[in-house]
Design brief:
Number of strands: 9
CATH topology of the largest domain: Rossmann fold
CATH class of the largest domain: Alpha Beta
Number of helices: 9
Structural class: alpha/beta
Distance between the termini: 23 Å
Largest sheet: 6 strands, parallel
CATH superfamily of the largest domain: TPP-binding domain
Strand order of the largest sheet: 3-2-1-7-8-9
Strand content: 15-25%
Shape: elongated
Number of domains: 2
Helix content: 25-40%
Bound molecules: carba-nicotinamide-adenine-dinucleotide
Length: 249
């Protein structure tokens, strides 16, 4: 990343009062959680000849819960993952009251761990799990440490509150997320291929002044952006934090 890019991003953030961050799996790769579509991502692997999209579908969950959980525990739960510089920088922006909210496709809960409160988790969270029979709630540890299919005391199957392929997004989360994007003066899109719908299309609600894309690979939003940075998003925000610290001294 050039110093010019960091400076330009700093300038955009400095003149913005209503920033929204729209992120995806690439925000958490620096925390050790693989994404789907990068070369080392989950889509480059196969699970008993099945694609992750098939295994993570609602149909597969109900037809083959044991296989679903085998995949899910190995590939979607990362109990030791911690927020990286990108999560921490965004928590700082919310404290400064210039970040309206985070709209994320991630299910790892790391934005909340970093201290952000206004987080719209479009695809749910691995941290919340519900018994399909009685509605009781469970933490991710109950799923992680169960043998086979995790079950409630009532005998019901426990399901993670994540949006599986084939399931609709939560209406109230979508309404909140789209309202934030529509009212933002700056939208920062990062760590997402913008290929999962309907989430990806929400960025076209943006009517504000500055559109920034930070992503290792090209995205469909690049052509509309004022600033495109093709770097590791954690490195970008770490450099920005450093620059802002130095300029305060
Ligand atoms: P994706 O389709 O895998 O795309 C990730 C994008 O991020 C790619 O374009 C990469 O080039 C880019 N990228 C990867 N690492 C970095 C990095 N360090 N800095 C900058 N860019 C990077 O993932 P999307 O989020 O676009 O797809 C949405 C899916 C992925 C959602 O359904 C998620 O639930 C799902 N997912 C979430 C997690 C998580 O919660 N951490 C992990 C894996 C998949």
């Amino acid at each position: 990343m050039t110093a010019e890019e960091t400076w330009r991003l700093h300038e955009i953030i400095a003149v913005s009062k209503q920033i929204v961050f729209f992120g995806g799996a690439g925000v958490s790769t620096a925390s050790g959680i693989p994404d789907f579509r990068s070369s080392g991502g989950l889509y480059s692997q196969e699970f008993q000849g099945l694609s992750p999209e098939t295994v993570l579908s609602s149909t597969f969950f109900y037809l083959h819960p044991e296989l679903f959980y085998d995949f899910y525990r190995k590939n979607m739960l990362f109990p030791s993952a911690r927020p990286n510089a990108a999560h921490h920088y965004l928590a700082e922006l919310e404290k400064r009251d210039v970040l309206r909210g985070i709209v994320t496709q991630n299910i790892d809960g790391l934005h909340k761990d970093a201290g952000n409160i206004r987080v719209y988790e479009l695809h749910g969270s691995v941290r919340e799990n519900t018994c399909l029979e009685c509605g009781a709630s469970f933490p991710s540890e109950s799923v992680l440490h169960a043998e086979g299919i995790p079950r409630c005391d009532c005998g019901g199957v426990i399901k993670p509150n994540v949006v599986l392929y084939g399931e609709p997004l939560e209406k109230y989360v979508v309404i909140g997320a789209r309202r934030e994007i529509t009212n933002a003066d700056t939208l920062i899109i990062a760590g997402t291929s913008l290929s999962v719908e309907p989430a990806a299309s929400f960025v076209s609600d943006f009517r504000g002044k500055h559109l920034v894309v930070i992503n290792l690979d090209p995205t469909p939003a690049d052509s509309r952006a004022d600033l495109v940075i093709r770097e590791n998003v954690a490195d970008v925000f770490a450099a920005l934090m450093e620059m802002e610290k130095e300029s305060c001294q």
